[in-house]
Amino acid sequence: INLGCSDKSVSGRGAGAGLLSTPHLIAEIFKKLSAALEVPVTGKMRLGWDAGSRNYLEVAKIIEDNGGALIAVHGRTKQQGYRGEADWEAIAEVCRAVKVPVIGNGDVRSVADIERLKSYTGCQAVMIGRGAIGNPWIFSRLDREQVPPAQVHATMLLHLQRMLDFHGEWRGLLVFRKHTERYLASYAVPHDLRRRLLTSASVEAYRQDLEQVFGGIG
């Protein structure tokens, strides 16, 4: 159950992180779903709506008491969005307060951060979001500098093809272009070439420009 989405179009109508302001609804949702479903019912939450209403311990207990099997905690409030530092101490408090497994989330950008978060909070697992953009290899315990350029190139081509297969040629390229900057962030790409990749309207031209990028990398 998503109790964490901070997007205004979601939270503003009482869904996502908006549910944090209505704990009685959270209790009702988890109670009914856990009674009706054979699969485990889990929740992803933030710390509260804003700094003045950080009700994460109350919400975590409600989830547990109404059949929730696992809780993922993003260490920020709805108001923070993705700004500021994630509060790992708050995640640790949730771990101490409930008996169900807790997944920690927030500011995991490197392999070392995975173990730091687990050690600091006592959480059983770690959820990674933005830290995986441009470095999906973090799930294989590899930091970006450990990934050979040839592997980055091959992964970008595979990622692009999957986007094309799913969205169609024009939208697939448009959606994939957003990942280009993060994939290439650690490389010195000439400005004109980088601009062409970020604005390309042709899949074939994009692939050719990408070939030029990696052809010029050691």
Written overview of the protein:
The protein is an alpha/beta fold and 218 residues long. It has helices spanning 8-11, 23-36, 56-65, 88-97, 111-121, 149-167, 169-183, 191-199, 203-215; strands at 2-3, 42-45, 70-74, 102-105, 125-127. Strands 1-2-3-4-5 form a five-stranded parallel β-sheet. α3 runs parallel beside α4 (88-97) and α7 runs antiparallel to α8. It is elongated. The N and C termini lie far apart (46 Å).
How do you describe this structure in short?
This protein is an alpha/beta fold.
Write the layout of secondary structure elements.
Elements: E1 2-3, H1 8-11, H2 23-36, E2 42-45, H3 56-65, E3 70-74, H4 88-97, E4 102-105, H5 111-121, E5 125-127, H6 149-167, H7 169-183, H8 191-199, H9 203-215
Parallel strand pairs: 1-2, 2-3, 3-4, 4-5
